[in-house]
Specification:
transmembrane helix, TerB-like, binds zinc ion, TerB family tellurite resistance protein, alpha+beta, membrane, rod-shaped, transmembrane
Length: 219
């Protein structure tokens, strides 16, 4: 609220001074998020307010921070807690099946014979078909070399955003690749169970998916 003060100068002229306080918002970062109000991917600004002492309506002296950081949609100007940025955007969701597929396949491949030419070729083809069109042998080798724990944590985070059918089909693809060089080894079976659980599938779902893959491979 502006405050008006009238004071007399030495020469006896009256000077009107208007001062007050105002919140000024600063943009900290920008990006794209999924806006719940717009229902789609939108540009956002991550912002923070600061109280300012104003003189003639102009902010001149920064004071304390006003409230916490928030995310503002550029389109609808809705404001959200920064936690909203954890929700995947539509574009990220579209890339997710291919990304999860890569991780599932890499884990299963390395529990068996990861040098098998047929299995490797199939892995590259399947990931490309899922939308990651630049995937190649080099990228596969990089995936095979990633730390196990890191991959598992990432899969757990990403898979919760996918429908159960999509998660089952990812496991199915990984199981089919493991079956290319013959029947599943104990280590391959264990890895498929672990991948299934990282994908948020139940034991019954995992067993069902793996037996379907077995039937179609003839092993
Ligand atoms: Zn919006």
């Amino acid at each position: 609220m502006p405050v008006t003060m009238c004071r007399l100068t030495e020469k006896g002229r009256a000077i009107l001074i208007i001062f007050g306080w105002r919140v000024v918002f600063f943009t900290l970062t920008r990006g794209i998020f999924h806006c719940p109000d717009c229902g789609g991917d939108r540009d956002y600004r991550r912002r923070q307010g600061r109280n300012f002492f104003t003189l003639f309506f102009i902010p001149v002296i920064p004071l304390t921070k006003a409230g916490g950081e928030f995310v503002e949609c550029d389109t609808c100007h809705g404001r959200w807690n920064p936690g909203i940025l954890e929700i995947p955007t539509t574009a990220q969701l579209a890339r997710m099946p291919a990304m999860l597929l890569r991780m599932a396949i890499a884990q299963v491949l390395r529990s068996g014979d990861y040098t098998h030419v047929g299995a490797r070729a199939r892995a590259v083809t399947v990931v490309r078909q899922a939308g990651d069109t630049s995937y190649d042998e080099g990228a596969l080798n990089a995936d095979l070399g990633r730390p196990f724990d890191e991959v598992r944590a990432e899969m757990g985070r990403a898979s919760s955003a996918l429908a159960p059918e999509a998660r089952e089909s990812i496991l199915r693809a990984a199981a089919e690749i493991a079956l290319i060089d013959g029947p599943l080894s104990v280590s391959e079976e264990e890895t498929l169970s672990a991948v299934g659980s990282d994908l948020g599938l139940t034991h019954v779902q995992v067993t069902g998916v793996v037996s379907l893959a077995r039937q179609s491979s003839g092993h």
